[in-house]
Amino acid sequence: NSGExxxxxxxxxxxxxxxxxxxxxxxxxxxxxxxxTGGYPTTLFINxxxxxxxxxxxxxxxxxxxxEMRALEKGRR
Length: 77
Description:
Strand order of the largest sheet: 1-2
Number of strands: 2
Largest sheet: 2 strands, antiparallel
Mean pLDDT: 85
Strand content: 5-15%
Distance between the termini: 23 Å
Structural class: alpha+beta
């Protein structure tokens, strides 16, 4: 998450039943700048080797998120 405080991010994750380990907190937005992210929201899908497999710019549906995560888990990227 870029620019948010830990408490705000934790509240969102808890409300949506998401694990905290799935979010990188970047209060200074340094990661977005280094990756050249063109806008918000951007969802990065990172494989077990720490490589960005794909990125989705804009709002993402629950179905698309689930599909991309399944692809990562199966190593199909």
